[in-house]
Write a structure and sequence with these properties.
The complex is a heterodimer of chains A (608) and B (494).
Chain A lengths: L6 H16 L5 H28 L5 E11 L2 E9 L1 H24 L6 H20 L3 H19 L6 H32 L4 H8 L7 H17 L8 H4 L5 H10 L4 H8 L1 H5 L2 H24 L3 H21 L3 H28 L17 H15 L5 H16 L1 H26 L13 H16 L23 H22 L5 H4 L3 H11 L4 H19 L4 H23 L4 H21 L1
Antiparallel strand pairs in A: 1-2
Helix pairs in contact in A: 1-2, 1-4, 2-3, 2-4, 3-4, 3-10, 3-15, 3-19, 4-5, 5-6, 5-10, 6-8, 8-11, 8-13, 10-15, 13-14, 13-18, 13-22, 14-15, 14-17, 14-18, 15-16, 15-17, 15-19, 16-18, 16-19, 17-18, 17-20, 18-20
Chain B lengths: L1 H19 L6 H23 L7 E10 L4 E8 H21 L7 H20 L3 H22 L4 H34 L6 H5 L5 H18 L8 H8 L2 H26 L1 H28 L3 H22 L2 H32 L10 H4 L1 H14 L6 H16 L1 H8 L1 H17 L14 H19 L2 H17 L3 H4 L2
Antiparallel strand pairs in B: 1-2
Helix pairs in contact in B: 1-2, 1-4, 2-3, 2-4, 3-4, 3-10, 3-13, 3-20, 4-5, 4-10, 5-6, 6-8, 6-9, 8-10, 8-11, 9-12, 10-11, 10-12, 10-13, 11-12, 11-17, 11-18, 12-13, 12-16, 13-15, 13-16, 13-19, 13-20, 15-18, 15-19, 16-17, 16-19
Amino acid sequence: MIEWLWLAPLFPLLGFLILILAGDKLSGPAVAWVGVGSVGLSAILAALVGTAFLSGDQVPYRLVLGSWMVVGDLSLPFGFYLDALSVTMLFVVTGVGFLIHVYSADFMADDAGYARFFAYMNLFVSAMLVLVLADNLAMLYLGWEGVGLGSYLLIGFWYEDPNNGYAARKVFVMTRVGDTSLALGLFLLFTQLHTLDIQAVLRASSQWQAGTWLPVAASALLLGGAVGKSAQLPLQTWLPDAMAGPTPVSALIHAATMVTAGVYLIARTHTLFTLAPAVQFAVALVGTVTLLIAGCSALVQTDIKRILAYSTISQIGYMFLALGVGAWSAAIFHLLTHAFFKALLFLAAGAVIFCFHHEHDIFRMGGLRKAMPVAFWSFVIGSAALAALPLTSGYYSKHDILLATFDASPGLWAAGCLGALITGIYSFRLVFVVFFGPERPGVERAIGWRMGLPLLVLCGLALLGGLLRIPLDSVFPVAVEAHRGFDAVSGITLAAPVAGLAIAALFYLTGTFSVRRLVSSGWGRGIQNYWFSGWGLDSLYNALLIRPFKAIAGFNKDDVVDAGYTAIAKLSLGLHYLTSASQTGRLRGYAAAMGFGAVLIIAVGLLS
Amino acid sequence: MMLLALVAVLFLGGLAALISERWSPATPRWIALAALALEFVLVLLQYLLTTDQSSAWIADLKRPWIARFGIGFHLAMDGLSLALVMLTVVLGFMAVSCSWTEIKQRPGFFYFNLLMCLAGTVGVFLALDLFLFFFSWEVMIIPMYFLISIWGHEDRTAAAIKFVIFTQVSGLLMLLAIVMLALIYHGDTGVYSFDYFDLLGTRLDADTAFWLMLGFFVAFTVKLPSVPFHTWLPDAHTQAPTGGSVILAGVMLKTGAYGLLRFVIPLFPEAAHQFAPVAMALGAVSVLYAAMMAFAQSDLKRLIAYTSVSHMGFVLLGVFAWNLLALQGAVMTMLAHGISAAALFMIAGALQERLHTREMGNMGGFWTAMPRLSAVALFFAIASLGLPGLGNFLGEFLVLLGAFKVSMALTALAALVMILSPIYALFIIQKAFHGPLRQPYPIADFGYRDMAAMGLLVIASVWLGLHPHLVLSETEPSLQTLQSSAAMESTDEQ
């Protein structure tokens, strides 16, 4: 069964080709069948391949389809590599991807660009599968850039609004900063090791002395790629803008799959990072800082999708923290559960937006729990999992991460717990504001089964996904499981999100405390604005990079280099005028000039 | 004799097109098409009939021409020239296709110049006698001057003169270098020769070698073009008719790159080796500077012209890195850029034909009005920004990979263009194709002829990007021969 693995990225690719070439001739249902069906076939295949792999002895499987290019000592095959890590990613991408495609069939039904939407979605899924299945870094890069393209196309899907186009370009360019770093990492690894095959690179690099410049430089460059794609500090500011795309896109690309590519990359090359302890610590630090600042920003957003976007940045911060402290399996486990509950939250948010006349501001909503029971329960379950309340899927993964962090660094653990508290506050703030309080009228329509069913399935996964732990011991060094009993550390870890929930309830449910009072003071409002703007990073980049670049480019529009050539042209033109001015046609002038010239020549001849 | 036919078919086709205008203004374009079709068949036959794998050279033709000065009519073809001649023919078709309705004035003379220009280009790619090479170089330039100055746009005269002055002044430097080289050879051996293989081993002292090398180098980097010799290109492109732009960007720039590969480094290996850091730095600066310039433009054709400078910077970087990876990358970039730049110029030309403007400020929202044209434009914008899976990426990836072995710093600098290229490429998409539609009147989308031409280029780009074996294996022997003939290996092994 496993040898059919290559069909997984091929189905969506064929779907893309059919839809892009013939999409305008197909009827709506036919488009949906092609677009959703191709990913469905991939999901079925992934299920078969994955179970076949997991029920076997989990020996990594390699499939080479052909050669991409052979130049000198560079030999790149079209190769796929399947181990427990890629199986996990395969499940996430095709499984969650399929549910989101089903949902989109309804969500996008009235859109004029229905076929174009599914074409781009299929292209994205195909590229994402190439990314997670690639057996060499160049193939991985192919998928890596491919998902970036899919993200660009889908964020700018509603192209008539220039703001969407701006957001799409910002996302592409900012992630390209990371991609450039990744590419340089590839060049360095190839120059040193003469191969780009991931397993061969990892084997060969293990000869390097830990902490020397090579593993440090290589892993730092890969980290640069990872923070770009996974929206971590300092490149995280694109993700909130990515919300300009249709909501299913946010669920698929900017929550469940593409943004976790950086986590996957680091996990995939984890032996390289263990050789560079400084860089690995940087991973943990980046994760911690990111999860805190993004959590704070999520606290003050009013756009339902931007809250979720900041929470995504924050949750990926947890994954980075886990990677940084060497809790590899916990990071991937959180990636899995996060894909479930964040896809659920986005799709539920999409349902709210869909039914509530495309409103995004949570403070214009309220009391929707009766009018929209499915969305309400989806949000309750999703937020519980996001906040990591006990017994939800998010609890298992985040608890693992925090306990592993405590063993590595109590300081980072404390920051992580603070983050968990903040998560509890912002996730239930959203629930209380949107679904409780006085009911606001305005629910225009109900969701159909194609939107409802994926929500139900994802509810189940968000609740019970903690049981779906895929054993990753064959990929990562077996973690020293500190089976701690119930002590203060695990108690605090457990209590932090519950405390967050309680605080949210006091502020937004019972009204015991009021935010208005908090921000009435000058510094309170200042902090609110600062957090709202994502810690001012956008304006910083604007002032430091974008405006100077635009200014220089604009100033030099006519190309300063050309000025030199223009000067030569002007000079010859000037000489031309000068000499032609002497051609007066007056005989006496010529005679005088001749006489003067003759005297001059004779004088020069005599004197020299 | 096949090689002679390759040049003669285009030459005679051009004459026939010129004469045929008497019968009907529609005949010249059919004659041009027929000549190119015949040329295509000949190139294909030449490729298929070659079975001898022992030498890098596929075909060779040598006849005395001006025997008194040792000037021969020496044409030869290896994998490198084969690939470039093929590119010339394919883009020749494209140029005819996009001129089909655009050129209404004096079509006979237009297609005569077009085919002459192509004949000169093919001659440049095949000539192995330096005098013949220079002759072909001139044959290529003069018709292009006419194409720009007669069928160009509003500022065509100034642009055409600028083009000619830049190429002629730099060509003069090359001619001087060629004559000097032949004289030195005469001094050594007592016989005159302009033959490539004779001159290849000429012993030169370091100073002379450097100056002669510089003569060639300047001629070729003006043509390429590289910063700081690039400023003729935006003007020429902006003013040229679409067919002229296609030939100029797609093929003619490649003659500069070809000259660097075929002549500069093999003839003057030591001088070139010493000069390599400067040349690579020029390449890296071109890549970045032109990318920034592209972003600043509001004239669509000017923007695309600057992207050409940026992409050709990679070729300069790759050629002077002089290892197999970088050389293969440079050749791949030449081919892939030929295709993507030609396609982008055809799109810009189609827009100008429909809207009578190149200003992107007057464009917007074309996706709604012209979905097919816009989709093709999106494809080539993405190819241009270097998306993996398409030819441009492959070339630039190999160049950077090879150059990284030689100079990490310059490669890292050039790699920064990966951030700048989406800025300009997506800027085109945003300005012209996204946003609200402004034109209230209907605009014709691409028809079958345009889509056939574009489809061919799309397939070629994907083919180069995903299955480059044919091109790589066909050019590898020639590149290896070139590389081993010039001992710059020392940089390679570091």
